[in-house]
Design a protein that fits this description.
With 317 residues, the protein is mainly α. The chain is 52% helix and 3% strand. The protein has helices spanning 2-9, 63-69, 103-119, 124-143, 147-162, 171-185, 192-197, 203-216, 230-237, 241-256, 265-279, 286-293, 297-311, and strands at 29-32, 37-40, 46-48. Strands 1-2-3 form a three-stranded antiparallel β-sheet, covered by helices on one side. A hairpin with a 4-residue loop joins strand 1 (29-32) and strand 2 (37-40). The longest helix is centred in the middle third of the chain and has 20 residues, at 124-143.
Length: 317
């Protein structure tokens, strides 16, 4: 019977290179993917069997079947103060069968819900952490950045909390700085002005706290490349694809010359888009470009002239 199984799976098995059977000393060892065994085709000796399968015992062929068969909760997350391990009492006053509870039970469930919320945080430190992570969640939603950025920001804030970097600083300032650091770390183009617009603290405090946290936690970040902002700005301005391509080309040529050093990346990107519009003969108002990049018209005007001069091109008249 073993020989028939081996013959059946010979065509789909993989031969082990330079491995001999310890019994017959032939190189006819094959792998049976159905049984998870490595056997010798010549003598039928089973070399390894019963591998550990860490996956579920059920199979699902779509997302709906996966949700129905899964018997585990949500994965651990750093964006919640308790990492998502505690339970919550649903706001709907219904039992496990979906039936409505009596009026007496409504009051009891309401009191349980209040105490459940209270015992989720055992001390002032956890309450502060809960508030900070909720602030990060609010700003992430307002900025429209992906979920991994929220996780990274939460980890950065937890590290700052463990090293006692919060002392003497506002929770909102450290949370905002952690989010801005996470955006740069994950290469998500969000300027300091955009982060400040959704924060509860001013830009000066965010910048000062960001530099302090990055230095203390030894987070080395590369300077922001202006080309990261071009696709989003072009999408908001609704310009042609050739303008976006030309703007990226202008940024690449000018950054090679070091022209972007010491300049705002958003202003530099906005100027490149305006210069690209001139070269591609597409009218883009300076005011619209400046408002999209949250910079001034003067900045756009000065930067685009420097860029055109650096690449030695003049717009068509």
């Amino acid at each position: 019977m073993t020989q028939s199984i081996i013959d059946h799976t010979t065509g789909e098995s993989q031969r082990a290179d330079a491995e001999l059977c310890p019994d017959c000393e032939t190189d006819t060892i094959v792998h049976d993917p159905d049984r998870g065994e490595r056997v010798c085709k010549e003598c039928g000796l089973v070399l390894t069997e019963d591998p550990i399968d860490y996956g579920p015992e059920w199979r699902a062929f779509n997302a709906q079947e996966h949700d129905q068969l899964s018997r585990v909760g949500a994965p651990l997350t750093q964006s919640m103060h308790d990492r998502g391990l505690t339970t919550t009492i649903d706001w709907r006053n219904k039992d496990a069968k979906g039936h409505s509870m009596s009026a007496d039970k409504h009051g009891q469930i309401h009191r349980l819900r209040i105490w459940q919320e209270r015992i989720r945080t055992k001390n002032a430190g956890e309450r502060n952490l809960k508030y900070a992570l909720s602030e990060i969640d609010r700003m992430v939603s307002a900025l429209g950045v992906p979920g991994p950025v929220k996780e990274t920001a939460s980890v950065i804030y937890r590290r700052a909390l463990d090293q006692d970097l919060i002392r003497g600083r506002s929770i909102e300032g450290v949370a905002t700085s952690a989010l801005y650091t996470a955006c740069r770390k994950e290469d998500i183009p969000r300027s300091l002005e955009e982060v400040t617009a959704v924060s509860r603290v001013d830009q000066r405090e965010i910048g000062r706290t960001y530099r302090y946290i990055a230095d203390e936690l030894d987070i080395n970040l590369e300077p922001t490349n202006p080309r990261q902002f071009v696709p989003r700005f072009c999408s908001e301005l609704d310009v042609e694809k050739n303008v976006e391509t030309k703007a990226i080309e202008i940024i690449d040529l000018t950054t090679e010359q070091g022209l972007h050093s010491g300049k705002s990346p958003t202003g530099f990107a906005a100027a490149a888009i305006y210069a690209a519009g001139l070269l591609c003969e597409e009218t883009i108002p300076q005011r619209a470009v400046a408002d999209t990049a949250q910079t001034t018209v003067v900045t756009v005007r000065n930067r685009y002239r420097e860029q055109l001069e650096a690449i030695d091109q003049t717009p068509a008249t």
